[in-house]
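Z., the sequence and structure:
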Amino acid sequence: MADKGVGIKTIRLMVNRRERLIPVDSIIYAQVTDKLCTIFRVEAAPIQIFLTIASLKAMLPQREFIQINRNCLVALRFIRDLDESSVILPDGVRLPYSRRQKQTILNAVQERLSLMARQQEAVLWKQGAAEEFRCFEHFPFPFCIVENKYDPVDNFQQCFFRYANEAFAALAGKPWHLLSGASFSSVFPQADRQWMQLFAQCALENRRFDLTLPQMKTGVPVRALLYQTHYGFCGCMVMTTGM
């Protein structure tokens, strides 16, 4: 059962006939094999207990854990990436997920990232981005970083600018400091959902695209190169189609 008290969130488990309080934040993932549940934890030995994944899942905060297959539950904060078949943890451990669960996992991870982004200080984020992408500041080609956010209400991926260099600001027709935090669709209203899907695939699945986008504010078709800068973020370099 979950501990409802104030302070560190814990769950109560009977381990070797003794009740133990397990901090929720210490749980990385849990896996059931032959009815035996192994709970892997941060800097602590795994715990083995006869428990179903459904029972363990019911004890844990719903928004902090996700079931990736029939017998495995993972803490969202420890998911670093996904490939075509596995969830990847910080230490390189790969846990296979059910194919039908892929979009659910992506949505849950993205919702958590969006929540974290909302909690961050915008100034600190911008300082970090400016330092990391300083080399693009006076780059002759427009360049920007967009963050992909999942909107659980509309069940749709949205994109927001997190960084733009001077050339991109000129292309968008807005001062660069007004771009930070603005939605892509508000700056380029002709952008359709297909654009957002491409940004999402780049940011969440580490896919790269070299494509020609419909006319933007300049009235000239442009070539866009998309790549994943960090999980959940997409870098976009823009060039005229003649280049």
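The chain has a mean pLDDT of 82. The CA atoms of residues 15 and 49 lie 6 Å apart.

Let me know what you think.
H.
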